[in-house]
User: What shape does this take?
Amino acid sequence: MKPKLIVCGAAGRMGRRIVALATEEGVFEIAGAVEKTGHPDLGKDAGVLAGVAQLNVKVADGFPARADVVIDFSLPEAADKSIDYCSGNKTGLVLGTTGLSDSQRKKIETASSKIPIVCATNMSVGMNTLFAIVGKVALMLGPDYDIEIVEQHHRFKKDAPSGSALTLAENIAKATGKEFPDCLTNGRSGKDALRDKGTIGMHAVRAGDIVGIHSVIFSTLGETVTLNHTAHSRDTFVRGALLAAGWLINKKPGLYSMADVLGLK
Assistant: This one.
């Protein structure tokens, strides 16, 4: 029997692709498709909405009675419902929503004592490899290299900097002994905006339909080293989320990362 999957934010850009690829791969049974109350797509078949076969699963503003795992890429204000449902039903949770508040992060930590949770700012294999090496590169190059992070996303993205950019900066800070987030300089402006030595510059671009580009620039007098990750489509995140969901089945309660899923630790 296939494990039962609930997709939160099922009518959104990411949600539709999760439903589509989960259906095409045939690993999961779509047990629920959740959206916010009042959404115009409520009542529509989730499979048809995603551009695949009819699944006889309607988009609803409530959770079904039972499932094995939930994938949530919706908005921060919807995350609490997913956490509460999973905690109350002993259901695993894959949470890729960014822009979470400190209280929500604490709630996730508390819930992880009851259920297994994979919480990540980015689910792609390539990006998580970059997460794993960026601090090592910073340490190897040393303090003479200025560090700047430039992240680019589509015009509809609400939070800035991106969660992935913050994870990159945090991993660099941990490796090099910098205080995070105090070490960040978010953009520059004015006539006296010289770089402060030892800081990490952070810059957010919002334009068009850019899926996601993250560049980490290490530069000193005479040379520059750039680490870059470009997502060609949202499917790279979806495949990572589905991989995490499958990995999470029958796992013990705990708070896991994509590094755990991919064996990068």
